[in-house]
Specification:
There is one protein chain. This protein is of the alpha+beta class. Helices cover 16% and strands 39% of the residues. The chain has helices at 2-15, 73-81, 83-87; strands spanning 33-36, 56-63, 66-70, 90-98, 101-103, 106-110, 114-121, 126-130, 135-139, 145-150, 155-160, 173-179. It has a five-stranded mixed sheet, with no helix packed on it. Strands 6-12-11 form a three-stranded mixed sheet, with no helix packed on it. Strands 2-3 form a two-stranded antiparallel sheet.
Length: 180
């Protein structure tokens, strides 16, 4: 009975949409997460590095050969004033799932960082589930899934596999640590 309730809970959480923020980062719900790498998310440019809102294609700026996308023209101006301040908050982390674990096991970031997990699977389909951040993504072998969110809550949060992948599935865990 507990397994059935747990599976129903995972299904329901997966069905919930993540609440976004407005174009200047004002909270309109629980936070913001982007899961990129799927056909439906091809035009998703991620999170504005200045305000944390949803980036738009029409607001971009290239700095040191890399193009950054913003939520509004005002954010481009702020970024130009001190680009390194904003770039330093973007944490791109390679993240591998495998039977029956994750690498790295501890993801350590600071509050306010834009976390960009570049998730892959070594073997079979796995899930990357971080309940407190509304993330429930599927990663397949040979695929790179970009999972992006603003680390707006401090603490330690479990990262679990939400797709049954074999007998050791229940032991498949990692930890997101968000420091102040």
């Amino acid at each position: 009975m507990k397994k059935v309730i747990f599976l129903i809970g995972l299904f329901c959480l997966g069905a919930l949409s993540v609440t976004a923020q407005d174009h200047h980062g004002e909270e309109m719900g629980q936070g913001m997460a982007h899961q990129m790498g799927t056909p439906s998310a091809e035009n998703d440019l991620g999170i504005c590095p200045v305000m944390g809102g949803e980036a738009q294609k029409e607001y971009s700026y290239t700095y040191k050969g890399k193009t950054y996308y913003f939520c509004c023209p005002m954010c481009i101006g702020k970024f130009k004033e001190d680009p390194e301040k904003y770039i330093s908050k973007i944490k791109e982390i390679p993240f591998q799932a495998y039977r029956f674990g994750y690498e790295p096991q501890d993801i350590i970031v600071n509050k306010g960082d834009i976390v960009c997990l570049m998730a892959t699977s070594r073997d079979v389909p796995h899930g990357v589930y971080i309940g407190e951040y509304g993330i429930n993504a599927t990663v397949k072998k040979g695929e790179v899934k970009k999972i992006e969110f603003v680390a707006d809550k401090t603490g330690e949060f479990p990262v679990l596999c939400s797709i049954y992948c074999g007998r050791g599935h229940s032991q498949m865990k990692a930890k997101l640590i968000v420091d102040e």
